[in-house]
Amino acid sequence: MLTKQFVLVMTNPNIEKDDYKTRSNFIREFIQRSNLQSSQPPSLSNEIPKMIVQFWDNFDDLPDDVGACIETWKSTRELGFNHQIFDKQQAGDYILKKLDVRHKLAFDKCYHPAMQSDFFRLCYIFIDGGCYIDVDDKYTGVPINKHFDDCRLKIQPLCYDIATNTMVPPSIFTKQGANNEHWIFYFNNNPLIAKKGNIIVGSALNRALLSLENNAANELPEIQSTTGPGNLTKTIFDNMLANITIEDTMFIFRDWENTAKNEWNLSYRNDARNWRHSNGQVYSSRKHQ
């Protein structure tokens, strides 16, 4: 078992206003360079646990359409995978048991379910390893065993066009040389596939922990940059600047949409359970109709 004390390689963990464009260009080059990656490097042949983990804060408030998405991942049990979904209470208990009070208090400061899921996935994957999947992703049924055959961190790249307020398809932005002055390149924290103790996941967890601890008591921090994709992207950027060889410990998906379809027309996206409607706002945990 991993001890509750761990050493992480990272630069300044404080959330600061920095040159996001420089970071985006750095990430773009990494993403497009990853086209040359080997599918399974012999030196990283240790397997990742075949565990699919998900989170929904309140099972009594689980919409049918979200439940239908979750059911698709339960089908992986027939392929030899384990599947477990945690609610807020179970996730908090896990963090307290496997980490410590400090991490549990940070989890308690996550004011929205999306933020709670962000922090919990970092805790779980760092401690036990496996695969975290958001509950609004629907499994397509394609084989996924190969994603667990080596211990590289496996993540999905994203590209947002600020001019059109739309996402750029991976088939376009992952091509060598593809770029636009309005594009922002970053990494999603879904899926998050890694072996326990992964240094990037641990660094992202520590950065989120410190950000939550350093946040003023009466402030509600921005979700994406504190615990979500922004936090993971900044962590990868910082670690690669410190040690470029860490690139070899990551695998970048270019076709994750073939494995999982993100369902946008879900009922909860129209209310406060959608983090985009609740970012920086007090969240009510009352049952939604």
From TrEMBL:
<protein>
    <recommendedName>
        <fullName>Glycosyltransferase sugar-binding region containing DXD motif-containing protein</fullName>
    </recommendedName>
</protein>
<dbReference type="InterPro" id="IPR039367">
    <property type="entry name" value="Och1-like"/>
</dbReference>
<dbReference type="InterPro" id="IPR029044">
    <property type="entry name" value="Nucleotide-diphossugar_trans"/>
</dbReference>
<dbReference type="Pfam" id="PF04488">
    <property type="entry name" value="Gly_transf_sug"/>
</dbReference>
<dbReference type="GO" id="GO:0006487">
    <property type="term" value="P:protein N-linked glycosylation"/>
</dbReference>
<dbReference type="GO" id="GO:0000009">
    <property type="term" value="F:alpha-1,6-mannosyltransferase activity"/>
</dbReference>
<dbReference type="InterPro" id="IPR007577">
    <property type="entry name" value="GlycoTrfase_DXD_sugar-bd_CS"/>
</dbReference>
